[in-house]
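USER: For my understanding, would you kindly supply a protein sequence with its structure tokens?

ASSISTANT:
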Amino acid sequence: MARMARRRKNLDALLHVWGVLGLLFLFFPIVVIVVYSFNTGRTLAAWEGFGLSAFTSALGNPNILAAVRVSLVVSVAVAVLATVLGTFAGMALSRSRGRWRPGFLALLALVMVTPEIVSAISLLPWFVTLGIDLGIPIFSSGAVRLVIATSLFSTAVVTFIVRARMDGMGTSLEEAAADLYAPPWRRFVDVTLPMIRPAVISGALLSFTFSLDNTVVASFVSVAGATPWPVYVFSAVRQGLRPEVAAMSTVLLGVTLLALLLVVLVLRKDPATSGEGGASRLATTIAG
């Protein structure tokens, strides 16, 4: 027994070391980019000194600021659109028992598992057909294309999050409000929305972060004058990664981490995802 316990302890220690090494392997490139964003050299090929010149150069570059502005505007629009559509879709999936549910669930699952390159290739000719062949000018706008293309995946994510939250809270309070003659909209605003607010906020923040780095789809559907940040970086690295690109990437990394931190804080305040088993319930929520 003592020998088996010793072997199990050694195995657990080995697995912990292996897990730490795996995390270091995955996150070390990000750490390198963050460190080299403080490089005073003209390229990231060699370290020439510590300074903030890369950040000042990035903030003074109009092309970089324009690309970041496009990404932030599109991400906010995607968060709003995906949250609205995903919230009502999640409520419908949780409360309705119609025959359309299996097909709709299969469609959402297909959106989440379809490779981004397939979605990008299919969206590009569709936008060209609507914007050029049919003469609908709104589909020729780069920002509109980016919002529509990026919101597909985000809407599916929000839908599954809201659906899981509503499945876990029951219908007793909504039924009580209906017994008190509250109209449907009043029941939604006063009863349903406060209970699913953590899921809605989490879905909005996740949609914002997902749309910031959607490089594949953005590179296909973007047009001149509305180049998002991932596409700008992808084109810039062909000529060598400059410190100002790393500096702005560090800033956006901080924004993304802040959004994810807000998701964690919101979910910790939600009784459905706190306490024992909260992590597993959160993973189930995101996975649908």
